[in-house]
Amino acid sequence: MRKNSLLVSSIGLVAGISSSLGFTQLKRKIKPLTSLPVLYAGNWKYVDGTRNRTHTISISPKLNLTIDDQAIPANVEHINSQELTFVDKFGYRITIQTNQERPVKLIDEADDQAYNIEPL
């Protein structure tokens, strides 16, 4: 009887240690998607046909937005693998859409325009 109780307590001790060290499947933590900013990071260009002008847009890995070398004070409102939406200081949205591989379209709510973007 004593051997059985020693065996049971040993198994309990091993189970407790393994769960404390994170070896069990039950305590698995869900990691946030840190690769989304990398999907949008880069330098892009688009043509504004109404003004006959080519613009550049840069998005940093920290999701800082720059258009034509001017930092745009904006907050990220939404991000997923299909689109990234910024809200600028005036409340207008700037949305970047992807084709699941790279950004392909910029939608500027202030100008009510959509532009195809290409890598620089």
From TrEMBL:
It holds the Pfam family DUF4828. This is DUF4828 domain-containing protein.
